[in-house]
Design a protein that fits this description.
The protein is an alpha+beta fold and 159 residues long. It has one domain: PCu(A)C copper chaperone (Immunoglobulin-like, Sandwich). The chain has one helix and ten strands, in the order αββββββββββ. Strands 1, 2, 3, 4, 5, 6, 7, 8, 9 and 10 form a ten-stranded mixed beta sheet that branches. Strand 1 and strand 2 form a beta hairpin. It is globular and about 60 Å long. Bound molecules: copper (II) ion.
Length: 159
């Protein structure tokens, strides 16, 4: 009886070790502080913001994104050209090992296009990022009208 117990335990430890190894080779991308901006109802699109943290040892490339409330999600960045702020689509986002990449108002963001309905404050939106390693990382994003107090302590307000 004792022998069988040990064998089962060992098998359990070994499969755990294999799973961890695969996670290391794969990607170690964390998503923090994800939120979606609640705009007035009727708007077809809105933006989502989040911080990507690469805790692994290889470059992580985000190739696309999706959200449960939108037809399509694009990666956008904001550039000023001739005094106007314009959004441009990016094909991918690269996060180097150890890097924190913040997507925030006025800069890079995820654009949620073709909303079924505008999410409202207090809702959560399921956001997923598809990586070049063929894996997917998901998070639930809070819906708010603007950055919360802890985010606005740097004194910047972008609209
Ligand atoms: Cu945009």
């Amino acid at each position: 009886m004792i022998k069988i117990g040990m064998a089962v335990l060992l098998a359990g430890i070994m499969s755990l070790a294999v799973a961890e190894e695969q996670a290391d080779q794969d990607t170690m991308l964390d998503i923090e502080n994800a939120w979606v901006r609640a705009l007035p109802p009727g708007q077809p699109n809105t933006a989502a913001y989040l911080t990507l943290v690469n805790r692994g040892e290889v470059m992580v490339v985000v190739e696309s994104a999706s959200a449960d409330v939108a037809d399509k999600v694009e990666i956008h960045t904001t550039r000023s050209a001739d005094g106007l702020m314009r959004m441009e689509q990016l094909q991918s986002l690269e996060v180097a090992p150890g890097e924190r990449l913040a997507l925030s108002p006025g800069g890079t963001h995820l654009m949620l296009l073709g909303l079924e309905a505008m999410p409202v404050t207090g809702d959560t939106v399921q956001l997923c990022l598809q990586l070049s390693s063929q894996s997917e990382v998901c998070t639930s994003a809070d819906v708010r009208k603007s950055r919360d107090a802890s985010d606005s302590q740097n004194g910047q307000h972008h609209h």
